[in-house]
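Morning. Coffee machine broken again, so started the prediction first thing and wrote up yesterday's gels while waiting. Chain of 88 residues, entered below exactly as on the submission form.
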Amino acid sequence: MTDIVRSALRSLRTTRGVSRRELADALGVHWQTIGYIERGERLPGLALAMRIAELFGVPVEELFSLATEPVPARTRRGRPAAGCVREA
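Came back before lunch.
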């Protein structure tokens, strides 16, 4: 099981009308990094998480939180990863 951290980045970013590229440029990271974080494929380091929260004016805890239940690992296409059983 992976993705035990949930990110509110996508909803916060889209609500504010900011593109991935604009956010990435403001943070000094590649735009694909934003997508990886939004999909839960990567976790930002503490410094980047703090910079994202500061940029949006929200606490880090509002942006990233622990999931109540771990979710199965998934491939980039949303299918269960090898060795993971699809939950009914």
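Residues 36 and 60 are 18 Å apart (CA to CA). Going to sketch it on the whiteboard this afternoon.
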